[in-house]
Amino acid sequence: MTAPPLLEARDLACHFKVSRPGRRRGHALLKAVDGVDLVLQRGRTLGLVGESGCGKSTTAKLVLGLMPRTSGQVWLAGEPVDTAAGHRWRRLRRRAQLVHQDPLGALDRRLTVGYQVMEPLIVHRIGSRADRRAKVLALLQAVGLGPDVATRHPHELSGGQRQRVVLARALILEPDLVVCDEPISALDVSIQAQVVNLLQDLRERLGHTYLFISHDLKAVRQISDEIAVMYLGRIVEQGPAEDLLRMPGHPYTQALVSAVPARAATGRRRILLEGDPPSPIDVPPGCAFHPRCRFAQDRCRGERPTLRPQADGRRVACHFAEAIAAGAGAAA
Ligand code: SF4
Fold first, then answer.
1. pTM of the predicted structure, to 2 decimals
2. pLDDT, mean of residues 194-208
3. Among residues 224, 254, 276, which one ends one of the domains?
4. Most buried of the four, 149, 167, 281, 319, by CB within 10 Å?
């Protein structure tokens, strides 16, 4: 029997009313997230990838109940995640933690590192003072920091050290789920691989489950068992990481994968996307990707594709996924 998923999200949506630039009256609907389904098994890593502004970070907040949903539902270990305050919300907070993209912004520069890593234990009234201190030192060691760091302040540390502190703070409550929202985007390239390696190592040793959000497909590939590709608030392809990267099915995924340096070195032609992604206020009708798609047909301009399972188990939101996979996309 298959184990129930640790995280399940169904039909997640987050729409905002915004004023239209340059117009005095009238509002537009900004669809930051528009009908996202996610399933994540315990001990696995799901990579969520897509260009900036596609709705990845909003999805992270919706999953954690940190912002209101327009529609949809989220369950963590079978328990509904809601945005209301209260006992149940506090219990869920212990079980799911967020690692922010900006480690300096996530830490208080006036407080010592040791206190900030310990703070969740104090808030949740866990352990004696001695237990808490021991746990902080053990966790600092687990993330590759010496005990001396506990008495220092965030501004005395490097960017990579600060992100390790943020990670230690997120892990101190031993959460089931860790949502990493662009955890390496603010770091030097030389440090990025170290942080991804550390996340991998911690997962192997402590059995964490990650939702790893990044625009960097190279990092997502390194850590993920499964990948979901997001475009303008919707998932356009989802499947096992290796399969998806070896044979991307959606034209948007094909373009992303072709831009990864290691792939480019194999001699595969780089697929350049024309123009920037449209604004989520003016999502094109039909397939939202059609203005940039080299395979677009009349049907794509009028009918929105749904995420459909393919023969290999992957799911692709494209009317012509089978024909494109068979190499006949241009004639589809
Ligand atoms: Fe391209 Fe049409 Fe497929 Fe959208 S549905 S990805 S426009 S071929």
1. 0.90
2. 91
3. 224
4. 167
